[in-house]
Amino acid sequence: MFLDLHCHSVSSDDSRATVEQYVKWVQVLRKRGYVVDGIVLTEHRKFDFDKDYSALADQYGVLILKGSELDTRYGHFLVYGVSEGLTRDIDFSDVRMDARELMRAARQHDAVAIPAHPGRFGIGLTEYIQQGESFPGVDVVELLNGGGRAGENERADELCQQFGYLGIGGSDAHLTSHIATCMTEFRAAIANESQLVDALLSKQFQPVRLEATAGVPSA
Amino acid sequence: MPYFEDIELGDQIGPVERIATDEGVARFCDVWSPPTPNRFTDAQTARESGMTGPIVPGIMAMAMMAQLLTDWAGPDAIRDLDVVFRQPIPHNRPLTLEATITDLRQENGQNLAECDILMLGAQGERHVGGKAVVSLPSRG
Amino acid sequence: MTMELSYDRTLHGKEHRAGPFEITADMIAAVNASLGEQGAAFSSDADAKEQGFRGMIAPPTLCSIFVREVQLPDVGLDFGRTQMHAGQRVQPIAPIYAGDRLTASSHLKDVYAKTGRSGTMVFVVWETTFRNQDGDVVAEVQESFARRE
After folding, report:
1. Chain B nearest CA to A166, separation (Å)
2. Which of A198, B30, B102, B129 lies 20 to 30 angstroms, CA to CA, from B79?
3. ipTM of this predicted structure
């Protein structure tokens, strides 16, 4: 199945799209022949425990899961499988947290933390590795990011080749029509956040661009 | 002018190509009157702020994006224009303005079309991105 | 190592008023000239009346040029040197006519930190309400500024 693992709704400070607009736009993409099975909302520096999108998900036939994108002193990290326990151990609003600490805490709480847009100039993991930092906990990075500038996804690709990292894909949409431009194809069927974490740990996935889903039978 | 009933999700407004010239920015700044020297009209000040040259003021870029919508839907059609300035906008370079209809709804007796709206550079770089809501007439 | 933002928190809830700002036909014409705007309703009373307005109107984002006239107080932010305009929202509520005198009322909406390509940034967000001489709200404007390290 094809999931967009990185997008922001109006719950993030810099996004202008509502969740309903995203799932309506998924219908437009489906009409155009693309396959989009679900999206994971990764709001900046927070996790929306109080938001329930199940009615929207049912109405539009789109899986809607929740995660977070956290700022760290080593770039942004996508976190899947967020629990109250994790938010007790990690201050999600702390833009200078140590990403290695976040990755450790995430695993302790059955979540995973994955470097977002690692090739991004000025803030991607590549920059910090070049500065001599090492990240032994990393084995998956966001290889395809829909919000990048020219050359940034290529830098992520080089990083994956150099360190043998696996890659996920996400649109990093902040606007409605940018949803699902990049996604992750999973072998497993995923219906909730816990299954998403399991599927990421299984390493049975690959990043894809929206165009690559044209004509693919839907899951 | 477009009618609400004729619009579908995914419809495009534009693209329209525009250039903010040195003269255009200078004239805009004459009305806006930011403190001088500034990074909009003075190359040295722009360089000191880390720019390669003078840049287009955000509110001027926004006015250009508003034009895309008023040309399409009428002078008082805009209900909301909400943009994020992502990259500095250079003078004298082609800028592409475009919008995509993302939502259609009726609210308080108005027919509203919401769109994503972008200002892109010649290499597709996203200078400004945001959303807008315009009110459209109905055939009914 | 949580990042504590130091700024004047007493500004929350305080309104800062300014004006009146007169919207003149010359001002509208000058903005039109800078933008290549040729819309009839923005060009003359006669053209605007043909479109059903009672006179020439200002382009919808024009009022935002007055936000900086409000003399917003220094938020006392102990962070960064360079400030960039990060975002702007204009919600036009009623037409603004040539000859209108607008007053502005602004308040601090938010101050928060985030990181991006250019490092750590602190965002300061102001909201301004514009009213005309009759006291009618004509536009709401929100501006955010990013302070960089």
Report:
1. 27
2. B30
3. 0.95
